[in-house]
Design a protein that fits this description.
Layout (H helix, E strand, L loop, with lengths): L1 H24 L1 E6 L2 E6 L4 H18 L4
Antiparallel strand pairs: 1-2
Helix pairs in contact: 1-2
């Protein structure tokens, strides 16, 4: 179980890094009345799923058997 937790943890961490960077890059900015406005067009679903995998991996890794 600990190995599966570590694998989920690593996959979740890599997913957060990759999809987080992609979400940051998927924004557009425009000028409105002299103010620079940024609008994000990112799909946040992969980032949320990666975060859930990371949390599940942490829970499984540090869960103690009784």
């Amino acid at each position: 179980m600990k190995a599966a937790g570590i694998i989920l943890l690593v996959i979740g961490l890599i997913g957060i890094i990759v999809f987080g960077y992609q979400a940051i890059q998927d924004s557009e900015s425009f000028n409105l009345l002299g103010v620079d406005v940024a609008v994000s067009k990112a799909d946040w679903t992969p980032l949320i799923i990666s975060g859930a995998m990371l949390m599940l991996g942490l829970i499984i890794t540090f869960l103690k058997r009784k």
